[in-house]
Amino acid sequence: MRRYFTEIIHGAAVRFGRNLLVYAPLGKNLNLAHQIQAVQFRGQQPLRMNQAIVSGLVIALRPKVLFNAYYTDICTAGHEVFTVYDMIPELMPQYFPYEHPGNQKFIDQKRRSLERASLIFAISTNTAQDLRRVYPHLDASRVLVTPLGVDATFFEPQQQLKSARRPYFLYVGHRGRHKNFTRLLAAFAQSGLAPQYELIVLSPGDFSPEERARIQNHHLADSVHSVPSASDTTLRSYYHQAVGLVYPSEYEGFGLPILEAMASGTLVATSRTSSMVEVGGTAAFYFDPLSVPSIAEMLIHVANLDDATRQQRTAQGAAHAKTFTWERCVQQTVDGIQKLL
Fold this sequence. Notes:
Number of helices: 13
CATH class of the largest domain: Alpha Beta
Shape: globular
CATH architecture of the largest domain: 3-Layer(aba) Sandwich
Helix content: 40-55%
Number of domains: 2
CATH superfamily of the largest domain: Glycogen Phosphorylase B
Structural class: alpha/beta
CATH topology of the largest domain: Rossmann fold
C-alpha cells in the first residue's frame, strides 16, 4: 500500500500542483504540492493524533476532494474518495470473525467510508465485483477499476545471489490466515522435491513455533529457509534466480508478487481463484489452493519443465507484466479525481 500511495501522490502533485495538500509521512519533498509531514513517534504513526490533525485541516480548508488511501470517519462537505484493496475480511469470516471487536470496528468503518464516497478506486476487476457483491446498494458507477503496476526495475538484469545453495522455489508475503502457507509446506513435502530443491520464504518475521514444528514434522528443516527482510535489490535477485514463485493464497485483492516475479523473468505457480487469475493471465500456472495434492503436482510440473517451455512461459510472463504499469494506474486515478472537480 505504501508504494501505491507514493505513486498516486506524486502523480497527483504533477496534475494538481499547489492545489494539492498532502498530509503523509513522505520522506521526500513533493515540491509541486503543499505537504505536511504526518506525526510519527519512533517510526510509528499515532493514529488518533493524526486523525485529529486531518480533521482540523478539513474544517479549516474545506477541500473540494478528500482522498484517503485507507478508511476513516473523517467527513467533509466536499467529495470523498477511497481505495478498496480487497473485501477479504467481509468474505472470509473464518479468518476475520465479525464478533471480534477489532474486525467489527474495521469492517463497519470501511462500510461507512464507502457509503459516503463520491468515488471508489478498486485495484482489480475482481475486487470491484466483490465490492458490489458485499454491498449491492452502492452505486456501481462510483466504482472505478485502477489496476496496480509493477516497478520498471524488476525488468532490469539482476545481480547473482551468493546465498543460494541449490535450486529453490520462492514464497513472498505474509504467512497467516488466508495466505495458505501451511498447505504449501505440506505440498512441498508431498512433492518429494525437498532433497533437490529449497523453499525460500521471504516473509516478515521468523517462523513461529507452530511453523517450525510443521517444518520438522514434514522433514523439511534442511530445505525450508526464512528470509525475514530484504532490500528491493535483493528481492529482485531472489525472484530472478528462483525456479518459480509459489503464491498459494486462498484469496487476494490483487497479488503484486505475481507481476514482480514475471517481470523478473520467473515462472509463477499460483491459485486459480479471485484476482490471481486476472493478474497472472495465461502466463501463470494454476492450482487449487485448498488441495495439497494440487499444489504438490504443480510444484513437480514446474520443476520438470523443459528449457524451451520454460523460456516461452517466462517471456510470456514478462510481456504480460509490462501491461500493468504505475503510469496507467496513476493516470486513471488522477483522471477520476479530476472529473469530480
